[in-house]
Amino acid sequence: MTVAAFESRMADQMTKLISRHGGNPLVAPSMQEIPLENNSEALAFSQRLLSGKIDLFILLTGVGTRTLVDVWKTQFPLEDIKRAMTQTTLVVRGPKPLAVLKELGIKPHLIVSEPNTWEDILHTLDAFKPEGLSGLTIGIQEYGMPNEELMKALATRGAAISRVPVYRWALPDNVEPLQQVLQAMLSQSVDVVMFTSGAQVTHIVELLNRTNDLESFRQALNRIMVSSIGTITSQRLRAYDFPVDLEPSHSKMGILVKETSEKARDIVQLKRQNSS
Fold first, then answer.
1. Residues 88, 112: one domain?
2. Which domain holds residue 95?
3. For 180-230, what is each residue's pLDDT tens digit?
4. Among candidates 98, 82, 94, which has minimal Cα distance to 49?
5. Do residues 57 and 141 touch, judged by C-beta distance below 8 A?
C-alpha cells in the first residue's frame, strides 16, 4: 500500500517505519520551524516572570520551553530563571515540556493528563482552582500558532492572559515535494495518509486553496484511510471536514504506524466499497 505522510523533522524515521511495516512511503515535509527573529515578547515576559507578576505559567511544548529558556539566558543568569519558574505555578501539557523541566531540576505543580488537549488543560485548572481564575495572570507558551480556544476559555474564567510566542511554523521553502504528494492523493494513487500534527493539516489546506483543489481533496479522502496521531490533530482535521479513520492507542509515531498497518487493508477496502 502507498502511504503518504507529512512529517518534517522526523521524515527519515517516518519513512523507515512505513517501510518496516510493508508500506510504500510517500513522505514530504509540510513545515519548517522558524525561531522568531525578534524575541522581544519572550524577553518582556521574562521581566514579568522574574518580578513575580505571573501567577501561573502553562508550558505547551518541549521545544518551546527549551527555546524560551535559551532566549532568557541571553539576558539573565540561569539560576535566576529557575528561581522565578519555581515561584510561579507551572502547568505542563505533557511529557515533552516535563522532560525539559526535569533537565533544569524543576518540578511542575500541575501535569495535564493525556490526551493533553486544551480541554484537558482546563479540566486540570478547574480542579486546581474550582473557585475560578479571577484575578490571576496566566502565561501561555505558544507553539506555532495561538490557541484561541484556550485563551478564550481562560478569559471567561476571569484570568488575564499573557501570551509568550516562541516560534512559528511555515511552509517549507521548497513546496514541490509536498505538492507532488497531494497530487498523488488527488489522483487516487495513495491508500493511506498519516498526520502527526495539526500544523500539517493547516499547511496542506493552504496549498490546496492555492490550486482550488480543497474540495477535490475532501472527495479523495473518501477512498483513503486517514490516520491521526491524536485528539488535537483530529480536531484540526475535522475542522476542515476531513475524516479521521484511526487514532492510535498512544500518541506515538511508532504506534501510529504499527496500528495503522494492522487495520489499513480492512478500512481502505470498506471505504472504497462505500464510495463506489
1. yes
2. 34-168
3. 999 999 999 999 999 999 889 999 999 999 999 999 999 999 999 999 999
4. 82
5. yes
In a shared domain, residues 140 and 212: no
Task: Note whether 50 and 84 are within 8 A (CB).
Answer: yes
Domains contained in the chain, number: 2
Determine the distance from the C-alpha atom of residue 233 to the mean position of all C-alpha atoms in its chain, rounded to a whole number.
7
- Asked if 62 contacts 143 with a C-beta cutoff of 8 angstroms, the reply is no
> How far from the centroid of its chain's Cα atoms is residue 143's Cα?
7
**Amino acid in position 201:** V
pTM here is 0.71
Query: What single string gives the DSSP state of each residue in the chain?
Result: -EEEE--STTHHHHHHHHHHTT-EEEE----EEEE-S--HHHHHHHHHHHTT--SEEEE--HHHHHHHHHHHTTTS-HHHHHHHHHTSEEEE-SHHHHHHHHHHT---SEEPPTT--HHHHHHHHHHH-TT--TT-EEEEE--BS--HHHHHHHHHTTPEEEEE--EEEE--S--HHHHHHHHHHHTT--SEEEE--HHHHHHHHHHHHHTT-HHHHHHHGGGSEEEESSHHHHHHHHHTT----B--SSS-HHHHHHHHHHHHHHHHHHHHHHH-
CA proximity to 32, closest of 189, 199, 221, 256:
199
Per-residue pLDDT, 165? 86
State whether 228 and 191 are in the same domain.
yes
Residues 25 and 91 in one domain: no
- Residues 161 and 62 reside in one and the same domain: yes
